[in-house]
Design a protein that fits this description.
80% of the residues lie in helices and 0% in strands. It is mainly alpha-helical.
Length: 532
């Protein structure tokens, strides 16, 4: 909270110092192909650019500022969007459950199958490798078949993969089962934030899209709790029960999805505003929500101009900026090392001096609870504090936690090591965890949002797979202290990236966000023309 406040208070002063540097960098990256001409910047353009970057003078375009209390108001609209968003977000718990339960299950799988570090990395990482394909296939299918149907198919794959994982009789069959599970999880992670962003009012979008990360945190906590409680039993097939139970939430989600409407924005894009309004109303959506989501003439015109992957290959300057920001956030979220740390927490705690398996699983349970509480707090304030301050402040906090981890491994101070693990999880859950998915779901144009988010999730899963596949090997080569110091440097770079390139999107509709990126690219082009 202190870091976020500091970022807000320092924005105005720092902007005055760095605006010229930022503008020059943006010009070199985003303005190829734009017509140039000598243009002098005016005071109005300077003020507009400050607003684009989320300075204190930003106007919320007449929209009422959202507070968390509004979600629990008695209004029909609030109840409806909370219910729809919660049911949709629950699908993301599948990823959280797998990360945490595999962290516990690997303790027993390693012993039964006599696995070394490389084999353990392969078992953990193949899910993310398969999730890359799942995200891309989901992106290809979403515009043709709808957001809801892709989520349903993904749940089916996840359930089948969980059952097969629990029944695996060897490493090869376990790898195949986890690949099937990865296909489903990749599609879920890609589709859920897009669906929620398209079905809720803009003033609630940040809070409700962050439910995706809340659900992941719930899955993490349930997985850690299941791993700890099952680990205390004397069963010989502990890990099979741990991973096989993952089919139950997949089945439950598949049943709950039947109560959800299809995305109204997708319906408008495919079938026009009239049918979209009729179908959305049939689902019980209140009239004021229908008017807010489907009533924009500019939005209807944009959706009529449907595009595909080809637009991403030859993007406009505004889309080019959106792609760099969105894909960059997807990379930075996993470069933080969160999933690798969560997968291998027992091994890292053992190297720090925690020898008891039960103690390792209990400490992991505490990390799961910390992540859940911190994610809930972040979701409650994201629409008031903004995306940019949370991402910058959280990245700085993660870098500091990694420095403490590195020092604790060098000094052998176990308490500092355990505390820094919990603090790292808290910093991630308050920033990169929920805010990254919120921002990724906002920054791309509606007509190609499915393809852009699919690419972002694919890159996100690829980055996670790379981190998971080499984490233990790097810890052996560099020592844990050296590895965590390297991660600290990476998190510092993430903070610089977010501050230099990410404009604030709080309080803007999805269509206004697209215009925001286009205007920012135009400001950079005009600045370059004026300096020639």
């Amino acid at each position: 909270a202190i870091l976020a406040k500091g970022v807000i208070l320092g924005q105005r002063t720092w902007f005055a110092i760095t605006s010229r540097i930022e503008g020059t960098f943006l010009v070199t990256v985003f303005t190829s192909g734009m017509s140039s001409g000598v243009h002098s910047r005016t005071a109005d353009e300077d003020a507009a650019e400050v607003a684009l970057w989320g300075g204190e003078t930003m106007v919320l375009d007449g929209h009422q500022e959202f507070t968390i209390r509004e979600l629990f108001a008695s209004k029909h609209e609030s109840r409806y969007v909370l219910l729809v968003s919660t049911i949709a977000a629950l699908n993301s718990a599948l990823l959280g459950y797998d990360v945490s339960i595999m962290s516990a299950a690997l303790v027993f799988i390693r012993r039964e199958f006599q696995m070394d570090d490389v084999c353990e990395e392969l078992v953990s990482g193949i899910l993310n490798a398969a999730a890359i394909l799942g995200a891309l296939l989901g992106g290809l299918s979403m515009n043709a078949h709808g957001r809801k149907h892709v989520i349903a198919l993904a749940c089916a794959f996840a359930g089948i993969g969980s059952v097969l994982s629990g029944a695996a009789m060897g490493i090869k069959s376990l790898l195949l089962a986890r690949a099937i599970l990865g296909l489903g999880i990749g599609s879920v992670v890609m589709a859920v934030p897009v669906y929620i962003a398209e079905v809720v009012p803009l003033r609630m979008r940040g809070c409700l899209v962050s439910l995706t990360e809340v659900a992941i945190s719930v899955g993490v906590f349930i997985g850690f709790f299941a791993g700890w409680s099952i680990g205390l039993t004397s069963m010989t097939w502990k890990w099979r029960l741990m991973v096989g139970v993952g089919a139950l939430p997949a089945l439950l989600n598949l049943m709950l999805l039947q109560a959800l409407p299809e995305s109204p924005r997708w319906m408008m894009m495919r079938f026009g505003p009239k049918l979209a309004e009729e179908r959305f109303a049939e689902s019980g959506a209140p009239a004021e929500l229908i008017r807010e989501i489907l009533g924009s003439k500019a939005q209807q015109e944009e959706l009529d101009d449907a595009a595909g992957w080809r637009e991403m290959l030859r993007p406009t300057p505004g889309l080019r900026l959106s792609l760099l920001v969105g894909l960059g956030i997807a990379v930075q979220q996993q470069m933080s090392g969160i999933e690798a740390v969560m997968y291998y927490t027992p091994m890292m705690l053992q190297r720090a001096g925690v020898r008891s398996e039960n103690a390792q699983l209990f400490l992991m349970l505490g990390m799961g609870l910390t992540k859940l509480v911190a994610t809930l707090w972040s979701g409650a304030i994201i629409d008031r504090v903004g995306r940019r301050p949370l991402l910058v402040g959280g990245s700085v906090g993660i870098a500091l936690c990694y420095l403490v981890m590195s020092a604790s491994y060098l000094s052998g101070w176990l308490l500092a090591c355990v505390g820094s693990f919990h603090a790292f999880v808290a910093c991630y859950a308050m920033s990169l965890g929920p805010v990254a998915w919120v921002t990724i779901s906002e920054v791309f144009p509606t007509r190609i949002r499915a393809q852009c988010v699919a690419m972002a999730v694919a890159i996100n899963r690829a980055t996670s797979a790379a981190c998971v596949l080499c984490f233990l090997s790097l810890a052996d080569v560099m020592t844990p202290a050296g590895l965590f110091f390297l991660l600290s440097i990476g998190s510092t770079g993430a903070a610089v990236f977010f501050y230099a390139l990410l404009p604030e999107t709080r309080g803007r509709s999805l269509e206004e966000v697209e215009q925001q990126f286009a205007a920012l690219a135009l400001c950079a082009a005009r600045r370059e023309a004026g300096e020639v």
